[in-house]
Design a protein that fits this description.
The protein is an alpha/beta fold and about 325 residues long. The protein has two domains: about 1-125 and about 310-325, Rossmann fold; about 125-305, Dihydrodipicolinate Reductase, domain 2 (2-Layer Sandwich). The chain has helices spanning about 10-20, 55-60, 70-85, 105-110, 125-140, 160-170, 200-215, 250-255, 275-280, 310-325; strands spanning about 1-5, 30-35, 40-45, 50, 65-70, 90, 120, 145-155, 220-225, 235-240, 260-265, 285-290, 300-305. It has a six-stranded mixed beta sheet with strand order 9-8-10-13-12-11. Helix 5 (about 125-140) packs across helix 7. The longest helix is centred in the middle third of the chain and has 17 residues, at about 125-140. It is globular. The protein starts with a strand and ends in a 5-residue tail after the last helix.
Length: about 325
């Protein structure tokens, strides 16, 4: 098994290498690739240094699978080149997510949309992945009518520059700004760029990707995405209106039984999900489960996950694992 990681020196790329190693993915030959700025660098994989190569060199190696985390422009340029060579591309950028013919996959929810002819697969947005990990099993039982989401998103979702800004602000140092305002001791209701409709791209990703992954255009979705001075993961307050009445004990049981979810919900013991608990974990943590008394058939949840792991790297590796188990990648 030949595996390429495109964007291997970035935050998510390095996490992909870590997850491949942790999960004992069958990598016989690794081809870490990055931009020319990373020429001559090395990454560590299974305790050994591996030279970073160019994207073209990675293409020429004809890997079986290529995990992309190098931005939408790079994915648009290079993913088709890999695919034409027979490589399965699993892309973490926004480049392909809303393309009709490209599967948008959270393996626990809709891996079956992948088939033998699939050569490019899109990894959903981090916020969408953790949201739907909790919502999808409830949708199957009660049918979701409307979602209202408020996110509290880690600076790691923006990248190294944002983490550096936060760290420097906490030290009283000046540095290059990833955000238009200070992030320490602050919250920015501004994730990604603003659109003509007044929403940000991040907010509309939650809308559009939910519809595609659940294959339900009729679900009404609205979101407010907020950047907070946190590094451990993303948190979401989720309000769900169902078509059918639900039972709170059954909701908790569904969460507890769903692979990839940890039910973390005991207010009497102050037990609820937080980024410091989800950090460096692959599971999605769900708690603060309670009925919305303001209207019928409506539930409130608090959902937390490490956005670099399950929200990006782990989900991509899980897609590749599914393809091996289904005989679609070997």
């Amino acid at each position: 098994m030949k595996v390429a990681v495109i964007g291997a020196t970035g935050m998510v790329g390095r996490m992909m290498l870590k997850v491949l190693e942790e999960r004992s993915f069958p990598v016989d030959r690794l081809f870490p690739a990055a931009s020319e700025r990373s020429g001559g660098k090395e990454v560590i994989f299974r305790g050994k240094p591996v030279k970073v190569i160019s994207v073209m060199e990675a293409v020429e190696a004809m890997p079986d699978v290529a995990l992309f985390s190098a931005g939408a422009a790079t994915s648009k340029e290079w993913a088709p080149v890999f695919a034409e060579n027979g490589t399965v591309v699993i892309d973490n950028s926004s480049a392909w997510r809303m393309e009709k013919e490209i599967p948008l996959v959270v393996p626990e929810i809709n891996a079956s949309v992948i088939n033998a002819a699939t050569r490019i697969i899109a990894n959903p947005n981090c916020s969408t992945i953790q949201l739907l990990m909790a919502v999808a099993p409830l949708h199957r039982e009660y049918k979701v009518r409307r979602l209202v989401i408020s996110t509290y998103q880690s600076v790691t979702g923006t990248g190294v520059k944002a983490v550096t800004q936060l760290d420097n602000e906490r030290r009283g140092l000046s540095s290059e700004m990833a955000y238009p305002y200070p992030i320490d001791m602050n919250c920015l209701p501004h994730c990604d760029t603003f659109l003509d409709n007044g929403y940000t791209r991040e907010e509309m990703k939650l809308v559009n990707e939910t519809h595609k992954i659940l294959d339900e255009e009729g679900i009404r979705v609205t979101a407010t995405a907020v950047r907070v001075p946190v590094k451990g993961g993303h948190s979401e307050a989720v309000n769900i209106e169902f078509e059918h009445e639900f039972d709170l004990d059954r909701v908790r049981a569904i969460m507890a039984e769903t692979p990839g979810i940890i039910l973390y919900d005991n207010p009497a013991e102050l037990k609820y999900p937080m980024p410091v608990i989800a950090h460096d974990r692959d599971e999605v943590f769900v708690g603060r489960i309670r009925r919305d008394f303001s209207q019928e058939k409506t539930l409130n949840l608090w959902v937390v996950a490490d956005n670099i792991r399950k929200g990006a790297a782990t989900n991509a590796v899980q897609i590749a694992e599914y393809m091996i188990s289904a005989g679609l990648l070997r």
